[in-house]
Specification:
alpha+beta; four-stranded mixed sheet; elongated
């Protein structure tokens, strides 16, 4: 009985200890599974390698590139022509599914032969393509020439450009715009025929940038040119008008594309930039033929109103003074020893010189005042020595008494002087106009701008 019990315990012990000593299923299959993983990884690397090689095989620049893949890491070796192609190869390889990273060991080709041959082949291919497209290019050039010629023909017509433009300069400017417009139209049509309309955007973009740079470089010149165009439209003055611009007075000789030319009354030429003229204050004395001269005289008299009436009467009676508007005068101020009288009269400056009229009026008024014993006081300086003179000698006589003690001037009527305009300066203006070789933008017969 004891023997059977011992056999049962031994069997039970062996049964319980067997799992600890026998190999498990996973332990039995581990080498097989590892082998399976290696085989799958190798298949994936080969798939990636095939995809990268097929991709590079489609690109001529990478025909000498060698590709190896291990564990998802792509290694690139070989030579290409540019550094850009090296970077591009890395980007292309990274786009393949399953690629972990790219180890780029490519180098730039330094062989002269291998670098020149592809360039020569490209040039040859482009030359061949250009020769094949030559008939289309010729058709495009013919279309461009025909449309441009049509633009020149239209711009050359007098109608409607001369009728809608205020002067010849503006008409020529409109004609130039028409020519440029037809040329651009012909260029667009020609590029469309050739199939290179995308090139037009590049050309226009480059032209815009170039125009902007040139505009900044010649800003003053462009500003003066634009001002000349605006002035030719507005026409604030005509040739031979007497004007005052930024302190300069004289006759207008010409309005060019850059400056306004004046001939001063001294015979000097003054060129004022058109930008300054357009933005400045312009006084046109010739726009209204009626112009007023004025002058002031200091007098010493008790009858001030009588002196004013006398002076106004003298000015009004001058033959060159207009009746309407009438001459006028008044007391304009008082000084230390005199009272200032102001007189003014209107003339037709087309028939009378302003400077001569003013001079003659002053002369006539002074003669009339002298005839009536209305004198102009003289400055008097007094020196007193109070310690050397007796008290009775300190009394002073009045200035009026001293003035009356002077001899009364005798006035003589010598008649009126010549007050006609100076024809010599007009002759100089005509000579200056003849010497001016630049295109004049003014219209002698056109309407002028009238500013209030």
């Amino acid at each position: 009985m004891m023997m059977y019990f011992r056999s049962f315990l031994a069997a039970l012990f062996i049964t319980l200890a067997l799992p600890f000593f026998a190999p498990t299923a996973s332990q039995v299959t581990a080498p097989a599974l590892a082998q399976k993983v290696v085989e799958n990884a190798s298949d994936a690397d080969q798939e990636i390698q095939k995809k990268v090689r097929d991709l590079f095989g489609e690109i001529d620049a990478y025909e000498n590139v060698f590709v190896t893949v291990k564990g998802g890491v792509v290694t690139l070796k070989g030579r290409v022509l540019t550094l850009e192609q090296v970077s591009e190869a890395t980007e292309l390889a990274q786009k393949i599914d399953g690629v972990v990273t790219v180890n780029n060991e490519m180098a730039v080709e330094t062989s002269v032969e291998k670098r020149i041959i592809p360039i020569l082949e490209q040039l040859q291919a482009r030359a061949t393509q250009l020769i094949s497209l030559l008939p289309i290019f010729l058709v495009g050039l013919i279309i461009l020439g025909l449309i441009t010629a049509l633009g020149f023909f239209v711009a050359k017509r007098k109608f409607p450009w001369d009728s809608i433009a205020p002067n010849k300069f503006v008409a020529d400017l409109l004609r130039q715009i028409v020519r440029i417009g037809f040329f651009i139209l012909g260029l667009v049509v020609a590029l469309d025929i050739i199939g290179a309309t995308a090139l037009l955007g590049t050309i226009l973009g480059a032209a815009g940038i170039l125009g902007l740079a040139i505009g900044f470089a010649v800003r003053d010149t462009v500003e003066n040119y634009i001002a000349s165009v605006l002035l030719s439209f507005r026409q604030p003055f005509r040739p031979r008008d007497v004007v005052k611009i930024e302190g300069y007075e004289g006759y207008v000789i010409a309005l060019t594309s850059r400056a306004t030319v004046l001939l001063t009354f001294d015979g000097n030429h003054v060129r004022i930039p058109n930008a300054t003229v357009f933005k400045g204050v312009i006084t046109n004395y010739s726009l209204n033929p009626e112009r007023r001269f004025d002058f002031s005289i200091g007098v010493e008299t008790e009858d001030l109103q009588g002196a004013v009436d006398l002076g106004v009467g003298v000015v009004r009676d001058l033959s060159f003074v207009l009746d309407n508007p009438a001459a006028d005068g008044w007391i304009s101020g008082i000084g230390d020893s005199s009272v200032t009288l102001w007189f003014g009269g209107w003339i037709n400056q087309n028939e009378t010189s302003l400077a001569k009229a003013k001079s003659e009026a002053i002369r006539k008024v002074i003669e009339a005042f002298a005839a009536k014993s209305i004198t102009m006081p003289e400055p008097i300086y007094r020196l007193r020595h109070d310690n050397d003179r007796p008290p009775a000698a300190k009394k002073r006589t009045t200035q009026t008494a001293r003035t009356k003690a002077r001899a009364k001037p005798v006035a003589k009527d010598t008649g009126e002087s010549d007050v006609t305009p100076d024809r010599q300066i007009e002759q100089k203006v005509a000579e200056a106009e003849e010497r001016n070789k630049e295109a004049d933008l003014m219209d002698p017969d056109g309407a002028q701008e009238v500013s209030s």
